[in-house]
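User: quick one, fold this
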Amino acid sequence: MILRLGRCVWQTQLRDTSIQFGRDTSQRLLLHHVGHSTEARTTPVFRQIRTSAPSKKPSGPVIQPLGEVGGGNVPSENVFKALIFTGAFSIGAFAGATVMEYENTRNMMLEKARQAKLGWIRRKPSDEDPWESIKRDVKRLWERLSPGEKVFVPICAANVLVFGLWRVPALRATMMKYFCSNPAAKAVCWPMFLSTFSHYSAFHLFANMYVLHSFSNLAVLSLGKEQFLAVYLSAGVIASLASVLYKALTVQAGLSIGASGAIMAVLAYVCAQYPDTQLSILFLPMLTFSAGTAIKVIMGIDLAGCIMGWKFFDHAAHLGGAIFGLFWTFYGPELWQKRVPLLTMYHDWRKTK
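Assistant:
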């Protein structure tokens, strides 16, 4: 089943109130700064598919199934590397989100100050550069997008780009090495991240992107785009770590690809944050159910898949992403506030530039 959001009152309410946790902190810091510087799976497919084995007749590059790549044993040093990389990457993702939040807020305030000073100036039509007109039109289209769509579009573009790179024969070896997560391979760390942009078929890509688009807007309105990106990227690596640990415990090394672990975190966050929201299935819109029920069923299926050893999906990655999404629902706001010292330190450093 490919889940989608129903019509909900909270979407309008969130747009009206512009909920973005922590935004006030960076704005308060910047008021002083800008003032001085400017003189701103089963058979039905659940919302995402992170696969451990491809279809028998793939339309694109051949990705070998479990058991054919890397053997069964997972070296203990690879598990250790995966743990260290996950911690370092997640810390780096949230630190980067903090800096991005500061810079975006600063640029916004600087742009408003510039418009206040120079907004009365109008260029003559004859002097207008054609490229400037195109840039203005593109900017106008971009500004029409919702906050969630502004985050979704770059993520989707990256996934489509990687999907295209898989179709280049000359890049096949490189893609297999760095864009497939295999705990038994020599390259363990970066493939845990890069594999979250790989998809083995057009339907695999469509299913993941459709569900991400359905839930990203609400998540971005709640978290803010910087925090959302940190959660999404970290969740992808954490889901890969869950897959690595499961394969090490069950002695079943093999390839995994797909964005579904990261998307599961977004789904779990939205479902836990708004459990009464009504969801439906893409091709069965008359069948509706609450978000709280949906996440329980999906996580139950993935837990059963881990226990029973089902191979069609990477259930451990799904479950790891969902658990991280639930964790961030309950503890995220408190942890996100702990970025304030870094935000202050960066602000003090930025003032000297």
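User: anything notable?
Assistant: The first strand starts at residue 3 and ends at 5.
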